[in-house]
Amino acid sequence: MTTKPNYRRKRHGIYIHPLIWCLLVLAAGGSLLAWHLHRAPETPAPDGSGAAPIQSSAVSDELPGHIVTPSGIACTLTQLPENSIYTGNLILVNNWTKFHFPKNQEDSLDCILDKRTDSYYVRDSSVYLLPEALSALNDMMDAFAAESGKKSVQIVAGHRTVEYQQHLFDQSAKQNGLEHAQRYVAQPGYSEHHTGLTVDMGTMTGEFMDSAGDYRWITENCQNYGWIVRYETGKEELTGIWDEPWHFRYVGIPHATEIVRMGYCLEEYIEYLKAFPQSGSHLMIDCVSGHYEVWYAQGTGVYLPDSTPCSISGNNIDGFIVTCKTA
Ligand SMILES: [Zn+2]
Predict the structure, then answer these.
(1) Tens digit of pLDDT for each residue in 286-301?
(2) Which range marks the domain in which residue 302 is found?
(3) How far is the CA of 185 from the centre of ligand 1 (A)?
(4) For 116-135, how does the pLDDT look when each residue is reduced to its tens digit (9 = 90+)?
(5) How many domains does the chain have?
């Protein structure tokens, strides 16, 4: 939909927030675009919702304790806690996949107003994000301001608590009826805004951002800063949300780059990654921040690099994605 919604009429609101789980964080750096998939798999048919039961592949006898990946990374089989599946930059949250709220989530969030650069604005001091996403937002908005000379973007929404999502839902139901609310407002617990990895962008004149005109640069370049346009035309059946050019989701630069290259929504991408199991061919991504090797582990037995920097994210469904910087 490309109407000019006012800020009260949010229809979704998903925001997941990565539980605290800290495995390695990958250094990102550089700036150079262009990434290639060295090993293109057959694209799996994504249905976006298929949730397989979590396999407690408890460091079993069936898997060797150590492997060397296709690009030569020595890894050791490691048992991760099951609840880690619900945390990380790649968790999928939608109308069918609920967010698992971590304890004390608010402790890990940063106030945008306190930490933003002067390249953009934020509605008020109540808008929060996870630190990694906020840092990436600063980078993107600095680049946009430098490129366009404009500092007119206003962040109008970020993290939402379950209580606030309930408030939005109740408010919509009261004003427009329950049916309308059920159609346009995410149920509490199912909004991507819970994650702390999502922002809604608006303008200083009170409109949501459009993908055309002055802000087209953001839509076209956001992947180089780790962001994707989460809800696009043509993907409604998969995402459950109509076109929302103002809603951006942080997933990190390599995955944002691959998502855009493949033309996928996040639902499709999470399925696509399953074509790169840890015991098989891995996904190779070249992007502005470097070269990466990526693999998917179903269950909680995951091969982690012995020394190579990597980041690990659950998919919020049935396993983990390991993203390793190789160059
Ligand atoms: Zn949104």
Answers:
(1) 999 999 999 999 999 9
(2) 14-325
(3) 10
(4) 999 999 999 999 999 999 99
(5) 1
